[in-house]
Amino acid sequence: MARQNSxxxxxxxxxxSTPERTPExxxxxxxxxxxxxxARRAFEIxxxxxxxxxxxxxxxxxxxxxxxxxxx
Length: 72
Prior knowledge:
The protein is 39% helix and 0% strand. It has 72 residues and is mainly α. It is rod-shaped, with a radius of gyration of 30 Å. It is built from two helices and no strands. It has a domain of 35 residues. Pfam families: DUF2934.
């Protein structure tokens, strides 16, 4: 038979776990513009061009770029 150690080692409490840090969420200014915001800005660009047709895709991409950079 195996002998049991008559001396018991005191158990130390487990170290408290620290909560993991989660990356901070970007602020409202840093978040991507919504489709509605892009559409509004694209329409403004369209109107500033004189309302000529044929460049809606370019207007959209320009509006998206401007809003991501935070300028209008």
